Fold this sequence. Notes:
This protein is of the alpha+beta class and 153 residues long. It has helices spanning 14-31, 60-74, 78-84, 89-98, 130-143, and strands at residues 37-42, 47-52, 109-113, 119-126, 147-148. The termini are far apart.
Amino acid sequence: MAGQVFKCSVQLTREQARQMIDAAIMKARALNIPPLTLVVLDGGGNLVAAEREDGCAPLRHPVAQGKAYTALGIGVASGVVGARNAERPAFVSSVSAASQGRFVAVAGGVPVLDEQDCVIGAMGASGASSEEDQQVVIAGIEAAGLKWGLEPE
Length: 153
């Protein structure tokens, strides 16, 4: 019989993650964009929720997760990371190696923020254009009543 254990602090709930994914899919269907795979990570990089729409290719999941992991790990949206480092391919390759290939520096991964603008998780999408991926992620985060940011002002 297992003993009692202390619960961990949860700052991004499964319910919030499901709301984010459901709203992002609704936005994607309203925009009539290709099928998506969506991933929500908590502040420790752990998977909270993920969903693949019918018709998504198998590589979409690791790409969506990589976009979310990049936003979480660097602290700005994955597209911002890519733009900031467009002229630094050695940096991008090094970080990709250090993250065991989970670093995807293209738009579609967005940090989820608390009231003090601290990162508490991230959401990523893959399947449409990078800009469309980012647009539906932002819609998902907002629909769950959470804050997001591409980069600090």
